[in-house]
Amino acid sequence: MRKLDNKGNPRSVTFWSPIFHASYESPYSYNKFIDQFFHPATTLLTGVSPPRISGDIKRILQLSKQYRIGDWYLYKNHTKIKIYGCELCPFKLPKYVPMRLFALEYFRQMIHTNMVHFCKAKKKAQLRIKNQLGPFVCNDREVWREVEIILEDHLKLHKSFGWRPYDSNSFICDRRMKNKLSPYIHHRIPEIEQFENMDEWREGTLVEHDSEQVNIENVMRDLEKTLDLDSFGQVPFELSQRSGIGASSVGTSQQPSQETSTPTTGTLKGKELETSFQTTEQSAMSKRLETSKEQAQIHTPPT
Q1: Mean pLDDT of 32-45
Q2: Which of 9, 16, 92, 254 has CA 20 to 30 A from 233's CA?
Q3: pLDDT at 119 over 80
Q4: Distance in angstroms (rounded) separating the CA atoms of residues 166 and 170
Q5: Region 145-166: what's the mean pLDDT?
Q6: How far apart are alpha carbons 100 and 92 in whole angstroms?
Protein backbone atom coordinates (compact mmCIF):
# COMPACT_ATOMS: atom_id res chain seq x y z
CA MET A 1 0.00 0.00 0.00
CA ARG A 2 1.38 3.41 -1.02
CA LYS A 3 0.18 6.50 0.84
CA LEU A 4 2.02 8.85 -1.57
CA ASP A 5 1.52 9.34 -5.28
CA ASN A 6 4.28 9.52 -7.92
CA LYS A 7 4.98 13.17 -7.07
CA GLY A 8 5.37 12.44 -3.37
CA ASN A 9 2.07 14.02 -2.35
CA PRO A 10 -0.36 12.21 0.01
CA ARG A 11 -3.06 10.28 -1.80
CA SER A 12 -6.59 11.49 -1.14
CA VAL A 13 -7.86 7.92 -0.82
CA THR A 14 -5.68 4.86 -0.23
CA PHE A 15 -7.24 1.54 -1.22
CA TRP A 16 -6.44 -1.57 0.77
CA SER A 17 -8.23 -3.74 -1.77
CA PRO A 18 -9.79 -3.29 -5.23
CA ILE A 19 -13.48 -2.39 -5.37
CA PHE A 20 -14.17 -1.98 -9.06
CA HIS A 21 -15.57 -4.45 -11.58
CA ALA A 22 -13.10 -6.01 -13.97
CA SER A 23 -15.52 -5.05 -16.74
CA TYR A 24 -17.65 -1.94 -16.58
CA GLU A 25 -20.02 -3.36 -19.22
CA SER A 26 -21.36 -6.06 -16.91
CA PRO A 27 -25.18 -6.26 -16.95
CA TYR A 28 -25.10 -6.77 -13.16
CA SER A 29 -24.88 -3.61 -11.07
CA TYR A 30 -22.80 -3.52 -7.90
CA ASN A 31 -25.97 -3.43 -5.79
CA LYS A 32 -27.39 -6.53 -7.46
CA PHE A 33 -24.06 -8.31 -7.12
CA ILE A 34 -24.13 -7.71 -3.34
CA ASP A 35 -27.81 -8.60 -2.86
CA GLN A 36 -28.16 -11.49 -5.34
CA PHE A 37 -24.73 -13.17 -5.15
CA PHE A 38 -22.55 -12.08 -2.25
CA HIS A 39 -25.22 -12.13 0.48
CA PRO A 40 -26.68 -15.56 -0.45
CA ALA A 41 -23.15 -17.00 -0.68
CA THR A 42 -22.28 -15.61 2.76
CA THR A 43 -25.50 -17.06 4.15
CA LEU A 44 -24.67 -20.50 2.74
CA LEU A 45 -21.13 -20.41 4.15
CA THR A 46 -22.00 -19.17 7.64
CA GLY A 47 -25.46 -20.69 8.00
CA VAL A 48 -26.79 -17.35 9.27
CA SER A 49 -28.26 -14.52 7.23
CA PRO A 50 -26.19 -11.36 7.90
CA PRO A 51 -28.18 -8.29 9.00
CA ARG A 52 -28.82 -5.47 6.57
CA ILE A 53 -26.84 -3.08 8.80
CA SER A 54 -23.92 -4.63 10.67
CA GLY A 55 -23.15 -3.89 14.31
CA ASP A 56 -19.95 -2.04 13.36
CA ILE A 57 -21.88 0.36 11.12
CA LYS A 58 -24.48 0.94 13.82
CA ARG A 59 -21.80 1.79 16.38
CA ILE A 60 -20.18 4.29 14.02
CA LEU A 61 -23.47 6.08 13.38
CA GLN A 62 -24.80 5.82 16.93
CA LEU A 63 -22.18 5.11 19.54
CA SER A 64 -24.65 5.89 22.33
CA LYS A 65 -27.97 7.66 22.91
CA GLN A 66 -26.05 10.86 23.59
CA TYR A 67 -23.58 10.63 20.69
CA ARG A 68 -25.28 10.05 17.36
CA ILE A 69 -24.04 11.38 14.02
CA GLY A 70 -26.61 9.89 11.65
CA ASP A 71 -29.43 7.45 10.91
CA TRP A 72 -30.13 4.62 8.48
CA TYR A 73 -33.32 3.89 6.54
CA LEU A 74 -34.18 0.44 5.23
CA TYR A 75 -36.14 0.56 1.99
CA LYS A 76 -37.55 -2.46 0.17
CA ASN A 77 -34.82 -2.58 -2.47
CA HIS A 78 -32.03 -0.41 -1.05
CA THR A 79 -30.61 1.26 2.06
CA LYS A 80 -29.90 4.93 2.77
CA ILE A 81 -27.45 6.52 5.20
CA LYS A 82 -28.21 10.04 6.44
CA ILE A 83 -25.49 11.95 8.31
CA TYR A 84 -26.84 14.88 10.33
CA GLY A 85 -26.23 18.20 8.59
CA CYS A 86 -25.25 16.74 5.21
CA GLU A 87 -27.04 18.45 2.33
CA LEU A 88 -25.93 16.03 -0.37
CA CYS A 89 -28.39 13.53 -1.83
CA PRO A 90 -27.63 10.11 -0.32
CA PHE A 91 -26.80 7.18 -2.57
CA LYS A 92 -29.05 4.14 -2.77
CA LEU A 93 -26.81 1.49 -1.24
CA PRO A 94 -27.51 -2.26 -1.48
CA LYS A 95 -30.04 -3.80 0.87
CA TYR A 96 -27.17 -5.49 2.68
CA VAL A 97 -24.60 -2.73 3.13
CA PRO A 98 -20.93 -3.86 3.07
CA MET A 99 -18.42 -1.88 5.12
CA ARG A 100 -16.49 -0.71 2.04
CA LEU A 101 -19.54 1.04 0.61
CA PHE A 102 -20.53 2.48 3.97
CA ALA A 103 -16.98 3.80 4.41
CA LEU A 104 -17.16 5.71 1.13
CA GLU A 105 -20.57 7.18 1.95
CA TYR A 106 -19.36 8.03 5.47
CA PHE A 107 -16.33 9.96 4.16
CA ARG A 108 -18.47 11.73 1.56
CA GLN A 109 -21.21 12.92 3.91
CA MET A 110 -19.11 13.61 7.02
CA ILE A 111 -16.51 15.71 5.18
CA HIS A 112 -19.21 17.66 3.35
CA THR A 113 -21.08 18.28 6.63
CA ASN A 114 -17.93 19.56 8.33
CA MET A 115 -17.15 21.78 5.33
CA VAL A 116 -20.64 23.32 5.23
CA HIS A 117 -21.13 23.96 8.96
CA PHE A 118 -17.73 24.26 10.65
CA CYS A 119 -15.23 25.19 7.95
CA LYS A 120 -14.77 28.71 9.37
CA ALA A 121 -15.13 27.69 13.01
CA LYS A 122 -12.33 26.87 15.41
CA LYS A 123 -10.58 23.54 15.07
CA LYS A 124 -12.15 22.29 18.31
CA ALA A 125 -15.62 22.89 16.88
CA GLN A 126 -15.00 20.77 13.78
CA LEU A 127 -16.25 17.22 13.53
CA ARG A 128 -14.00 14.30 14.36
CA ILE A 129 -13.84 12.24 11.19
CA LYS A 130 -12.22 8.83 11.11
CA ASN A 131 -9.10 8.73 8.93
CA GLN A 132 -9.32 4.98 8.36
CA LEU A 133 -12.51 3.02 7.90
CA GLY A 134 -12.96 -0.39 6.33
CA PRO A 135 -10.41 -0.89 3.53
CA PHE A 136 -9.80 2.85 3.03
CA VAL A 137 -7.51 5.51 4.44
CA CYS A 138 -8.61 9.12 4.02
CA ASN A 139 -5.78 11.64 3.67
CA ASP A 140 -7.55 14.68 2.24
CA ARG A 141 -10.59 16.71 3.29
CA GLU A 142 -11.58 17.18 -0.36
CA VAL A 143 -11.91 13.45 -0.88
CA TRP A 144 -15.72 13.60 -0.89
CA ARG A 145 -15.62 14.71 -4.54
CA GLU A 146 -13.50 11.73 -5.54
CA VAL A 147 -15.72 9.38 -3.54
CA GLU A 148 -18.78 10.68 -5.38
CA ILE A 149 -17.11 9.86 -8.70
CA ILE A 150 -16.33 6.35 -7.47
CA LEU A 151 -19.89 5.66 -6.31
CA GLU A 152 -21.70 7.28 -9.22
CA ASP A 153 -19.46 6.72 -12.26
CA HIS A 154 -17.62 3.50 -11.42
CA LEU A 155 -20.07 1.59 -9.23
CA LYS A 156 -23.14 3.01 -11.03
CA LEU A 157 -25.09 3.78 -7.85
CA HIS A 158 -28.10 6.06 -8.07
CA LYS A 159 -28.93 8.97 -5.78
CA SER A 160 -32.06 9.32 -3.71
CA PHE A 161 -34.09 12.48 -3.13
CA GLY A 162 -32.59 15.41 -1.26
CA TRP A 163 -33.62 15.90 2.37
CA ARG A 164 -32.42 19.14 3.86
CA PRO A 165 -32.00 20.39 6.48
CA TYR A 166 -31.59 16.99 8.17
CA ASP A 167 -30.73 17.01 11.87
CA SER A 168 -33.29 14.79 13.63
CA ASN A 169 -31.17 14.53 16.80
CA SER A 170 -30.19 18.27 16.89
CA PHE A 171 -26.57 17.17 16.73
CA ILE A 172 -25.50 19.89 14.28
CA CYS A 173 -27.83 22.57 15.68
CA ASP A 174 -26.52 22.22 19.24
CA ARG A 175 -22.94 22.24 18.03
CA ARG A 176 -23.52 25.38 15.95
CA MET A 177 -25.24 27.20 18.80
CA LYS A 178 -22.40 26.28 21.13
CA ASN A 179 -19.96 27.96 18.74
CA LYS A 180 -22.16 31.05 18.33
CA LEU A 181 -23.40 30.14 14.88
CA SER A 182 -26.94 30.37 13.54
CA PRO A 183 -29.28 27.45 14.39
CA TYR A 184 -29.87 24.60 11.99
CA ILE A 185 -33.54 23.62 12.04
CA HIS A 186 -34.46 20.09 11.05
CA HIS A 187 -37.07 19.60 8.31
CA ARG A 188 -39.42 16.90 9.53
CA ILE A 189 -40.95 14.22 7.31
CA PRO A 190 -42.93 12.10 9.82
CA GLU A 191 -44.06 9.46 7.31
CA ILE A 192 -40.39 8.55 6.76
CA GLU A 193 -38.87 9.31 10.17
CA GLN A 194 -41.14 6.84 11.92
CA PHE A 195 -39.20 4.02 10.23
CA GLU A 196 -35.66 5.23 11.00
CA ASN A 197 -33.00 2.86 12.39
CA MET A 198 -34.99 -0.35 11.94
CA ASP A 199 -33.28 -3.74 12.13
CA GLU A 200 -35.34 -5.32 9.34
CA TRP A 201 -37.57 -4.04 6.56
CA ARG A 202 -41.26 -4.85 7.01
CA GLU A 203 -44.11 -4.85 4.54
CA GLY A 204 -45.95 -1.54 4.45
CA THR A 205 -42.93 0.55 5.52
CA LEU A 206 -40.47 2.33 3.20
CA VAL A 207 -40.66 1.88 -0.58
CA GLU A 208 -39.01 4.28 -3.03
CA HIS A 209 -39.76 3.81 -6.72
CA ASP A 210 -37.02 4.37 -9.27
CA SER A 211 -37.17 7.08 -11.87
CA GLU A 212 -38.19 6.35 -15.47
CA GLN A 213 -34.58 6.57 -16.61
CA VAL A 214 -33.46 4.03 -14.00
CA ASN A 215 -36.33 1.71 -14.97
CA ILE A 216 -35.21 1.86 -18.60
CA GLU A 217 -31.63 1.06 -17.56
CA ASN A 218 -32.86 -1.90 -15.50
CA VAL A 219 -34.86 -3.22 -18.47
CA MET A 220 -31.78 -2.97 -20.70
CA ARG A 221 -29.68 -4.81 -18.10
CA ASP A 222 -32.31 -7.55 -17.85
CA LEU A 223 -32.25 -7.94 -21.63
CA GLU A 224 -28.47 -8.17 -21.58
CA LYS A 225 -28.62 -10.82 -18.87
CA THR A 226 -31.24 -12.76 -20.83
CA LEU A 227 -29.09 -12.70 -23.96
CA ASP A 228 -26.08 -13.66 -21.88
CA LEU A 229 -27.91 -16.66 -20.41
CA ASP A 230 -29.33 -17.68 -23.80
CA SER A 231 -25.83 -17.75 -25.26
CA PHE A 232 -25.11 -20.88 -23.21
CA GLY A 233 -28.03 -22.57 -24.98
CA GLN A 234 -26.14 -22.29 -28.26
CA VAL A 235 -23.52 -24.85 -27.18
CA PRO A 236 -25.73 -27.98 -27.23
CA PHE A 237 -27.28 -26.72 -30.47
CA GLU A 238 -23.87 -26.52 -32.14
CA LEU A 239 -23.02 -29.99 -30.87
CA SER A 240 -26.26 -31.34 -32.33
CA GLN A 241 -25.44 -29.71 -35.67
CA ARG A 242 -22.00 -31.30 -35.65
CA SER A 243 -23.59 -34.69 -34.94
CA GLY A 244 -25.90 -34.16 -37.92
CA ILE A 245 -22.99 -33.32 -40.19
CA GLY A 246 -21.14 -36.45 -39.07
CA ALA A 247 -24.14 -38.63 -39.89
CA SER A 248 -24.70 -37.06 -43.30
CA SER A 249 -21.09 -37.71 -44.29
CA VAL A 250 -21.66 -41.42 -43.85
CA GLY A 251 -25.01 -41.64 -45.60
CA THR A 252 -26.12 -38.64 -47.66
CA SER A 253 -29.28 -40.21 -49.00
CA GLN A 254 -31.09 -39.76 -45.66
CA GLN A 255 -29.92 -36.19 -44.89
CA PRO A 256 -33.33 -34.50 -45.34
CA SER A 257 -34.96 -36.65 -42.68
CA GLN A 258 -32.22 -35.68 -40.22
CA GLU A 259 -32.55 -31.98 -40.96
CA THR A 260 -36.23 -32.12 -40.04
CA SER A 261 -35.35 -33.52 -36.61
CA THR A 262 -32.68 -30.89 -35.95
CA PRO A 263 -34.00 -27.75 -34.19
CA THR A 264 -34.15 -24.73 -36.48
CA THR A 265 -33.29 -22.16 -33.80
CA GLY A 266 -30.80 -22.00 -30.97
CA THR A 267 -33.19 -20.42 -28.54
CA LEU A 268 -34.79 -23.52 -27.09
CA LYS A 269 -34.51 -23.73 -23.34
CA GLY A 270 -34.80 -26.27 -20.56
CA LYS A 271 -36.58 -29.52 -21.35
CA GLU A 272 -37.23 -28.56 -25.01
CA LEU A 273 -33.52 -28.14 -25.69
CA GLU A 274 -32.65 -31.36 -23.86
CA THR A 275 -35.35 -33.33 -25.73
CA SER A 276 -34.25 -31.94 -29.10
CA PHE A 277 -30.64 -32.81 -28.37
CA GLN A 278 -31.54 -36.38 -27.36
CA THR A 279 -33.69 -36.83 -30.50
CA THR A 280 -30.86 -35.68 -32.74
CA GLU A 281 -28.36 -38.00 -31.04
CA GLN A 282 -30.71 -40.98 -31.38
CA SER A 283 -31.27 -40.17 -35.08
CA ALA A 284 -27.53 -39.97 -35.66
CA MET A 285 -26.92 -43.29 -33.91
CA SER A 286 -29.67 -45.05 -35.88
CA LYS A 287 -28.21 -43.73 -39.14
CA ARG A 288 -24.78 -44.98 -38.23
CA LEU A 289 -26.23 -48.47 -37.58
CA GLU A 290 -28.15 -48.48 -40.87
CA THR A 291 -25.07 -47.31 -42.77
CA SER A 292 -22.89 -49.99 -41.17
CA LYS A 293 -25.45 -52.65 -42.13
CA GLU A 294 -25.50 -51.44 -45.76
CA GLN A 295 -21.70 -51.48 -45.91
CA ALA A 296 -21.65 -55.00 -44.43
CA GLN A 297 -24.09 -56.21 -47.11
CA ILE A 298 -21.94 -54.67 -49.89
CA HIS A 299 -18.74 -56.33 -48.72
CA THR A 300 -20.35 -59.74 -47.98
CA PRO A 301 -19.42 -62.31 -50.73
CA PRO A 302 -22.41 -63.92 -52.57
CA THR A 303 -23.28 -67.51 -51.60
Answers
A1: 88
A2: 254
A3: yes
A4: 9
A5: 91
A6: 14
Q: Which residue has the higher pLDDT, 26 or 205?
A: 205
Q: Is 120 helix (H, G, I), strand (E, B) or coil?
A: coil
**Half-sphere exposure of residue 154: CA atoms within 13 angstroms, side-chain side:** 13
Mean pLDDT of 160-166: 92
For residue 58, the one-letter residue type is K
The answer to whether residue 248 scores a pLDDT higher than 50 is no
Nearest to 111 by CA among 134, 81, 80, 88: 88
Tell me the whole-structure pTM to 2 decimals.
Answer: 0.66
Instruction: State the first-to-last Cα distance of the chain, in angstroms, to the nearest integer.
Output: 88
CB atoms near residue 4 (< 10 Å): 11
For residue 80, the SS3 value is strand
Per the CB < 8 A criterion, the answer to whether 32 and 42 are in contact is no
How many residues does this entry show for the chain?
303
Is 108's pLDDT higher than 60? Answer: yes
In three-state secondary structure terms, 72 is strand
* Pairwise CA distance, residues 152 & 138, whole Å: 19
Rg (CA), the chain: 31
Contact yes or no for 181/145 (Cβ under 8 A): no
Q: Which residues of 195-233 are buried (b: 16+ CB within 10 A; e: fewer)?
A: eebeeebeeeebeeeeeeeeeeeeeebeeeeeeeeeeeb
**CB-neighbour burial class of residue 92 (10 A; exposed 0-12, middle 13-18, buried 19+):** buried
Which runs of E-coded beta strand occur in 68-218?
A: 70-74, 79-83, 132-133, 136-138
Q: What CA–CA distance (Å, rounded) separates 116 from 144?
A: 12
**Residues in a beta bridge with 79:** 74, 93
Contact (Cβ atoms closer than 8 angstroms) between residue 73 and residue 195: yes
Q: Looking at the predicted structure, is the pLDDT value of residue 192 above 90?
A: yes
Mean pLDDT of 127-141: 85
